[in-house]
Request: fold
Amino acid sequence: MTNRSQIVITKVKNKTVLVSMHNDKLYDVRVENEEKTFGNVGDIFVGKVQNVVDNIHAAFVEFEKNKIGFLPLSECQGKTVKAGDEFVVQIKQAAVKTKQPVLTIFPEIAGRFAVVSTKSKTKGVSKKITEEEKKKELYEILEDFCEDPYGVILRTSAKAASEEEIRKECTGLLKQMHELMDYSEYKTRFSCLYREASFYLKYIRSLELSNFERIVTDLQSVYEELYPIYGDKVELYSDDSYSLDKLLGISTKLLKANEKKVWLKSGGNLVIEPTEALTVIDVNTGKAVDGRRNKETTFYKINCEAAIEAARQIRMRNLSGIILIDFIDMKEQEHVEELMQLLRMKLSEDKVKTVLGDITKLGLVEITRMKKNPPLREALSWE
Reply:
């Protein structure tokens, strides 16, 4: 039961939670936004500009009655924005604590295999599809849509889809976007033009499902939504005597994801300190150096284990913004380069855009991760 890759959707603390699990470990965690105070990421509205603040180069847009979003003017590609303007906006990033949701004036709609965007005419293929022959096949499919004014990007999941499936979805998404943008001219301000799919369906669409053995849930409504799309890949767990949460230890694992200290198999540990401005991850040797003569080799092994675990913790806890990792100092430059290469590879597995920077003069590794949803501790009300 434990040595498999699976997606689990269940209730934790009365909230619907999705987790991706590999060999009994949690990686991605998504939590339903039950309050929906500001709508969901991906929702599209007709908004009205309330005011423009030049010194922060941003506008504040009311997209639903008494609901204000933050629109960076850098998102507008030189378009003049002034108070009273009405135009289409989409929620790009969720509200976090006292910060309003971030908006964009270039909406996009995502399907299983493609994303249609109004930002440019670009027709492209996910960078994660590296096989040249497959990329060539996908670009040939996109040639049919080259005259459309909206952009189309084929997702990683398109690699396993048939040509017919991809063409059908691209045609449907483009039609939907054209209708949405055309009709927006006749809609009154604060009208909702598009509601994003359920958070779990949105996440599953972004995956290459061949990497997962199953999608399992004990929620009848979730099963009924997913089974018509993914068929026998979806399983309904229905043992009332022992819950799915207890069977897989989801709640226990999520509680550990809120702990400050994370132990490594080597005896070392990570100390994770989130603050308002950034998150610091400190790598400690702990008991791992007891009786070891070659400390450089030991430090290298601990750092490598720490890099793998830190990348997982960042994903699982949904940490974002600036992240600094203080690895154990190593003298050999070769070890430093191999460590950075390993960390870069592990961070690249994250579905949220994550950028590995340089090592600072103080020896700290810099990482930036896009803010899309609240951190796990906030989403599950641990704060």
Observations:
- The two ends are 33 Å apart (CA to CA).
- The longest helix spans residues 295-317.
- The chain has a mean pLDDT of 90.
- The chain is about 25% helix and 30% strand.
